[in-house]
What does this fold into?
Amino acid sequence: MLNQYEVISIVGNAKNAGKTTVLNSIIETFHDRLLAITSIGLDGELIDNVTSLPKPRIFVYENMIVATALECLKAAEATYEIIDKTGIETALGEIVLIRIIHSGNVLVGGPSIVTQMESLVAYIKTLNVDKILIDGAFSRKTISKSTDACIFAIGAVYSSDLTKVIDAAKLTIAQFSLNRVNDSFNYLETEERVVLIYKDGTYKKLEYDSVIQYQQEILEFLTSDVEYIYIPGSLPTQFAKELIRKRRTVLPKIILKSPTHMVLPEILLNNLFNSGIKIIVLHPVNLVGIMYNPFSPTGYVFDDREFQDKLKKITHLPVINVMNERRNDIDG
It folds into this structure.
């Protein structure tokens, strides 16, 4: 599943979904390879700083590279040496690169800004590592566009109602599966203003760099001859509602930078997908596998077979239990 990819992100449906367990499984699978590990934000702590629940540690092996904040080094149990500084500042100090001398647990706190992560990934690639593993942020499902592949960790902790877990997972999988624009739209890569593309192939750049502050003004531009609207930032909730409401009179296709630029409530996201409005992106997510955790740290557990079967009904991707994965499932 992962052998062919260089940069791999792991995102989850909730805190304590099993992302760290997935990361440790991947590290163990490729422990004889030169890996680099980092995270979007903080991970690897003993107690989750949001839920106060116990968490698994991130275990790394000799010669692996870890990109983490200086403050996090105080919690490292592995022996290491600092090999470089990145100049990337975070609330926990500068991100530094360490090389593991003796195996052990580490606390990983990486950059929380996507552009900083992209710069960090580009630098780590110059070190000729075999793979770069990024522990993603659950709340924004943030994924760097430098990522070659993504694993989605689905945890029972999301809800004690399995149907709700499956329904939410189905939405996220649909979001991560949005198609890429064709090459004729490559000029939008560097565009930071709202752009209207007309049915005759011409386009117009509006003066607005965000939809949030100028929703009504932009809506007035959406005439029947507009085929696409490019939104350089996030798709706002109210704007999405207005597009759904007006879909019978005007139905432009939406172009976003990436699927993660759709930060919408689940009900609205579901309505948008069912509205007939087509959404495409400049930077799609290459979702390659689903790893699920039937155990919730709050005390309940789902039936493993039922959980797996219901997930397999909503995706064609490999579906693997994070608690009993096999090496061949991961490196195949």
Remarks:
- The chain has two domains: 7-176+285-331, 183-281.
- The helical segments are 19-29, 114-125, 162-176, 215-221, 237-245, 266-273, 304-312, 327-331.
